[in-house]
Write a structure and sequence with these properties.
The strands form 18 sheets. Strands 11, 13, 14, 16, 19 and 21 form a 6-stranded antiparallel beta sheet that branches. Strands 34, 36, 37, 39, 42 and 44 form a 6-stranded antiparallel beta sheet that branches. A 5-stranded antiparallel beta sheet has the order 1-4-9-6-7, with no helix packed on it. 39% of the residues are buried. Helix content is 1%, strand content 38%. The chain is built from 2 helices and 74 strands. By secondary structure, the chain is an all-beta fold.
């Protein structure tokens, strides 16, 4: 009997190894620039284009490279979705196929509206059967798909087809079509959206089976799948109803090849009465499951999705078994989604969480005084006062975050949030998160990592940071064992001050990838590669410490301060000494480090100077190296070191060399800005013909928050130690400056410093303005100073001098031998910005414009900002410009309008690497040709505030409006009277004087433009405005009209769209008004976007801004807001477009435009209501009594559970309804078929 039982188990888990053979004549990678044996359909509406490089010149949404070879030289097929009409199709047909096959391909669908991509099988048995479909924006990456076509032996043709939607902006692309003879190869990931569930199967000996289900159809299970987060997604589940205790169901993956190390990651859902167990097992080929599960959990986990992961090995081919076992009660649910198997160890990404669906793998610490709670909106008793009103991930009240309330726990008690256990991480691992700390009684938020039972603090902040989300980052660094993150919140004495976190991410934590050939780089024992300049610097860049091997580093002069000061000595002539310390420094304000760099723990040692009493501002400590031999300049002696400078009162860290005791100190390096709570690596090239000594000097700043620490100092082998003593000399007297405390002009005259950088030449030679920002970088940096804290910094280069892969091949002026400032992406080891600043400026006039050129090239290029900053308060700044991502291998010009400001501000250009993509040399940022124009207060123009304008004065055609001429505008608005030269488009007369006058207006001519071209008008920044009404008349007439936009821009904040219209609105003038308010200086911008043809002329006239609230509007189309209608009742009306979140209800388009792009007002029926029969009310503004008003509107009522729509008038004083009332409660149609009109 035992033998028979074993045989049964073996048969259950036996899998037949299958050879998956591609059919070459049926596949296509498009690399020959054609469609191979696939044919363009002759009866469709559009063709697939065979492309190289980035497709979609109009939509800018195509893939940057093909999938086959991953470069701009590779080929693929694409359809740019922009000019198609509804249901237009592009079809690509395969050759005739006579057997069952598996189709696989890679696809790209990206853009605002990209329609659908379908795979259709046409056979005699099943003609034109859709076997696979995807709809909408999938994102900018290539995505893999495969489909098994069970057609038997009948002949069939496969069609890959795009179908256009109502409006189309985007690109659909395909590449690497492969057709296998027979079954599909096993997938390493599965979202269970396809009916074949990726080849997963139920074990034939199951007591009951796993089933695939649509989330919306699962009563008692998850209402949303994990893949899409909607009811439209699928997952696998087991129905535990009426199953006996101990019943088992196993879901088996396909058979995979043997693996020395792999990671399976999956999402599971367990909710209901206690009972049951969920586990994952390895099943070797032709064998029973391994008894010991690689993952196991049991009991109810709460009604949300959790991530699970496990590492495993298998010396033979294997399957994985996902096992559900019934416990003592069967009233619960176990579901599974998004299974992924990857080679290598599991990464720390499981600790990343947005908290939108659940707490991921984060848990409250059992021994804490009170708990972190997952909130949405202004939840909680006090969070509505001092807590967030929305999360950071979605920016809406519907998003989730983790928070603690200030009235929870006792005074000075803690709430501790523990992250999951994660595997070892690389030296570049960094934590990125957002926090909200607001209120007078806000306590302290700290972040620790726990390794081998030891806690090491990596980040700490306390106090009020205002009512907003703040982005934070902390260096985790190399951890060679399992570890976990911990957030700890400490409450203060009062109840008003809450702490919240959101969007926790670990980035760049994976160990370096294994490479086949390291070339001229160092080869690590584990097979990864490291540049030689990074070895022997006390950082484990290899991931196995082989680049820090003592034998390898024997010729380096190094000190990690773990045992004393090594060859370094304290200077006896300074004011204070450097102290050797471990763990946290003893400074109460904790601005010193909490760990060293060598060990990356609180147990390691470093040297530091502390800024507390009895130290005084200006006190300095010097550390002296041993002596080194002079060199002739041919060597590459380099000093590498790590420094920690944190606190608002930070002083200076200076590094000198000297060739004689008492002699001149040659400054090689200096920093005077805080870098945050992390160690920054830097290096210095040293050249000296004489023997020399390095002097490291730390200078105390102006307060107690500013400790400075050093660790892990190394000298490369080219720095040869010397046993010779340095000569002793008498210091030479210094020559006094001819202009003490003043600026010395080029001709030797002296100028008060407050007259420099005031945008006016006060020196006869203009030298007082030469160092103030306007610069082409041909001779020097014109006063721009790099104040970066690490190796990711701004440097001045001549064309061809930089080794950066994406460095510009000419400067912004087109010079092949010109100069520019560049940030080399290869140096982006940490998520720390590169900072380039000017000197403090004088008073800035209202018409000041900063013109500059920028170059951002590389797939992983990061962010570029331009700020106007108060150097005395780093958080007091205006964001003048920001952009990110690859902008192509070309220069772009941009103008920023600075606004009026008092003396003391400076300009700041900052670049940051792309978060999580510190990938090396192919991501570079450059700036050039900066001009500060019209910035002196005397340069203010007479028309600067002339916003109200009828455009009639031919001598002052634009009043105070400015035609934007940088790269954000492709052509210009112009002044005109009379008809357009083009038929059936444009205005025939102005609005001011009307049809029989000869008035003027502004218009855009589309005849010589391309679709998508932009013309912009703006104004100089205006003074803050408590309330104002901005109104204008616009004209949009033509068959191919584009879009007209108006933006409101508070200085330092992103533009806000306050009006938009698309399409033709008839040959007439239309009025619009908007109430605006600005607590800061503000701008208004008018924008015309050309449509698909020449019949796309825009016009504006009679623009007006008055300092009062706009009068009530008679009409509202909800295109830009609710106009004068306000929400009341138990829940709110919403603005929407392109359908609603609920399925089988809601309009697919608005009535105004008849497209999915138009807006309407609606109620969302799927959002839980406070109680049955709850009401959403939309109230108009107040009308005077005794008047007759007529109400007209279009309404849409469709769905099986439709409620009631009512309209009535009410008395403002009593609240009583009038005799006039109207209501509907029946399901109407999927169309806007009903128009209501009533006077009362």
């Amino acid at each position: 009997m035992d033998g028979i039982r074993v045989l049964t188990v073996l048969l259950c888990f036996c899998a037949v190894a299958t050879a998956f053979t591609p059919i070459p004549e049926l596949g296509c990678d498009f690399e020959n620039g054609d469609t191979c044996n696939w044919l363009q359909d002759q009866d469709d509406d559009d063709d697939w284009a065979i492309q190289q490089g980035k497709s979609g010149p109009l939509t800018r949404s195509g893939p940057p490279a093909d999938h086959t070879i991953g470069t701009a030289e590779g080929w693929y097929a694409s359809v740019e979705m922009i000019t198609q009409l509804l249901n237009d199709k592009a079809k690509l047909n395969s050759p005739t196929i006579s057997s069952e096959v598996c189709l696989s391909f890679w696809y790209h669908m990206h853009g605002g509206q990209v329609g659908t991509l379908e795979v259709i099988s046409d056979s005699d048995i099943l003609p034109d059967e859709t076997v696979w479909v995807r709809e909408g924006d999938i994102g900018p990456d290539w995505v893999y798909a495969q489909i098994f076509l069970a057609t038997g032996s009948s002949q069939h043709v496969i069609t890959i087809q795009t179908t256009a939607s109502i409006t189309n902006i985007g690109v659909v692309a395909i590449d690497d079509i492969v057709i296998y003879d027979g079954d599909c190869p096993p997938l390493n990931q599965c979202d269970f959206e396809a009916e074949d569930v990726c080849g997963f199967t139920n074990n034939v000996n199951n007591d009951f089976d796993w089933q695939r289900i649509l989330a919306a159809d699962h009563e008692g299970g998850p209402e949303m799948d994990h893949t899409y987060g909607t009811g439209s997604g699928h997952y696998m589940y087991v129905d535990s109803t009426d199953q006996p205790e101990g019943a088992v169901s196993r879901l088996l993956t396909p058979l995979y090849n043997a693996t020395p190390e792999s990671c399976v990651e999956f999402w599971y859902h367990m909710a209901g009465d206690n009972g049951g167990r969920f586990s994952v097992h390895v099943v070797p080929e032709n064998s029973s499951p391994v008894d010991e599960p690689i993952f196991v959990t049991q009991f109810s986990q709460g009604s949300f999705w959790h991530v699970g992961a496990a590492e495993f090995t298998s010396s033979t081919k294997y399957m994985l078994a996902f096992e559900a076992e019934i416990g003592f009660t069967s009233v619960y649910d176990i579901s599974l989604d998004d299974v992924k198997i990857e080679a290598g160890r599991c990464t720390g990404l499981r600790a990343s969480c947005t908290f939108e669906y659940d707490m991921c793998t984060w848990t409250n610490h059992a021994g804490a005084d009170f708990d972190w709670i997952r909130f949405t909106g202004s939840s909680g008793s006090l969070l509505g006062v001092t807590g967030p009103h929305s999360d950071h991930t979605t920016g809406t009240p519907l998003g989730y975050y983790m928070a603690v309330e200030a009235d929870s726990g006792n005074v000075l008690s803690y709430a501790v949030l523990d992250g999951p256990i994660v595997r070892e991480c690389s030296s570049t691992c960094q934590l990125y998160f957002c926090f909200h700390m607001y209120g007078d009684d806000t306590g302290k938020l700290e972040v620790y990592f726990v390794q081998n039972g030891m806690q090491t603090r990596i980040w700490s902040h306390k106090g009020d940071y205002g009512d907003n989300w703040v982005t934070a980052s902390a260096g985790v660094g190399r951890i060679a064992t399992d570890w976990q993150l911990v957030f700890r919140a400490k409450r203060q004495f009062g109840p008003e001050g809450d702490l919240a976190i959101d969007q926790v991410f670990l980035v760049n934590c994976q160990l370096p990838e294994i490479e086949d050939d390291c070339g001229d780089r160092f080869t690590c024992n584990r097979g990864s590669c490291v540049d030689y300049e990074w070895i022997c610097d006390y950082t484990d860049d290899c991931g196995d410490f082989s680049d820090e091997n003592q034998t390898l580093c024997a010729d380096y002069t190094r000190c990690n301060f773990e045992v004393g000061l090594c060859d370094w000595t304290q200077d006896t002539d300074d004011d204070i000494d450097w102290d050797r310390e471990d763990g946290k420094t003893s400074t109460l304000l904790m601005t010193g480090p909490s760990r060293d760099h060598t060990l990356n723990t609180a147990a390691g040692h470093y040297v530091y100077i502390y800024s507390r009493v009895p130290q005084s501002p200006g006190d300095y400590a010097r550390l002296l190296s041993r002596n080194f031999k002079g060199m002739d300049g041919s060597g590459n002696c380099t000093m590498r070191f790590y420094y920690h400078m944190w606190g608002k009162d930070i002083g200076n860290l200076n590094i000198y060399i000297r060739t004689a005791i008492g002699g001149h100190l040659q400054l090689l390096w200096s920093r005077d800005v805080q870098a945050g709570d992390m160690y920054i690596r830097d290096e210095i090239a040293i050249v000296s013909p004489d023997d020399f000594q390095v002097v490291i000097e730390g200078v105390i700043g102006g307060g107690v928050e500013g400790d400075i620490a050093l660790d892990d100092i190394t000298f490369t082998p080219e720095c040869k130690p010397s046993d010779n003593e340095l000569p002793i000399v008498t210091p030479e007297p210094t020559t006094p400056s001819p202009c003490p405390d003043e600026f010395e002009c080029g001709d030797g005259t002296c100028l008060p410093r407050n007259l420099t950088c005031n945008f006016k030449s006060d020196c006869s030679d203009g030298s007082d303005e030469d160092i103030c920002g306007t610069c082409d970088y041909e001779n020097d940096q014109c006063g721009w100073t790099d104040i970066s804290t690490g190796v990711y910094r701004w440097d001045r280069y001549q064309v061809g001098e930089s080794t950066a892969v994406q460095a510009p091949e000419e400067d912004a002026a087109g010079r092949s031998d010109g100069h520019y400032m560049l940030v080399d992406g290869a140096n982006s080891q940490w998520y720390i910005g590169a900072f380039l600043v000017t000197d403090v400026h004088g008073e800035i006039g209202q018409c000041c414009v900063m013109e500059f050129n920028y170059h951002m090239s590389g797939d992983g290029v990061g962010l570029l900002f331009v700020f106007l900053q108060d150097p005395a308060d780093g958080l007091n700044l205006y964001v003048l410009f920001q952009t990110q991502g690859d902008q192509g291998n070309e220069w772009h010009r941009h103008d920023v309008y600075v606004g009026a400001h008092p003396r003391r501000w400076r300009f700041d250009v900052e670049s940051f690497p792309l978060l999580g993509s510190f990938t090396g040399d192919a991501n570079d940022v450059a700036i050039d040709e900066i001009v500060l124009r019209d910035c002196h207060p005397e340069d203010v123009k007479d028309t600067v505030s002339d916003i109200t304008c009828d455009f009639e004065d031919i001598g002052n055609q634009f009043c105070g409006w400015i035609r934007v001429e940088d790269d954000s505008s492709d052509f210009k608005w112009v002044s005109r009277s009379g008809k357009s030269p083009n038929l059936a488009t444009g205005a025939s007369y102005d609005h001011t004087l009307g049809q029989y006058g000869d008035g003027r207006f502004l218009f855009t001519q589309a005849e010589f433009q391309s679709a998508g071209d932009i013309a912009r008008l703006t104004i100089y920044p205006q003074s803050p405005l408590e309330i104002g009404c901005f109104s204008f008349w616009y004209h949009m007439y033509g068959a191919t009209m584009g879009t007209f936009n108006v933006y409101f821009h508070r200085l330092g904040w992103p533009e806000t769209k306050i009006f938009t219209k698309t399409g033709s609105w008839g040959n007439q003038w239309h009025y619009h008004q908007a109430t605006i308010s600005a607590d800061l200086q503000f701008q208004l911008t008018i924008e015309a976007v050309i449509g698909s043809g020449i019949k796309s002329e825009f016009a504006i006239d009679d623009v007006k801004l008055v300092p009062q609230e706009c009068p009530p509007q008679a009409a509202c189309d909800f295109e830009t807001g609710f106009c004068d209608w306000t929400n009341e009742g138990d829940f709110n009306w919403l603005r929407g477009r392109d359908g609603s979140a609920s399925s089988d209800t809601g309009p697919a388009y608005d009535h105004t435009t008849g497209t999915a792009e138009g807006w309407f007002a609606y109620i969302e029926a799927s959002i839980p209501r406070p109680f049955p029969n709850s009401k959403a009310k939309l109230a108009s503004h107040v009308y005077p009594g005794g008047t007759m008003e007529c109400l007209e509107f279009w309404y849409h009522m469709f769905g099986t559970d439709i409620g009631t729509l009512s309209v009535y008038a009410r008395d403002v004083d009593s609240g009583d309804k009038s005799d006039f009332e109207w209501s509907k409660s029946s399901k109407m149609s999927t169309k806007y078929i009903s128009q209501f009109k009533q006077c009362a």
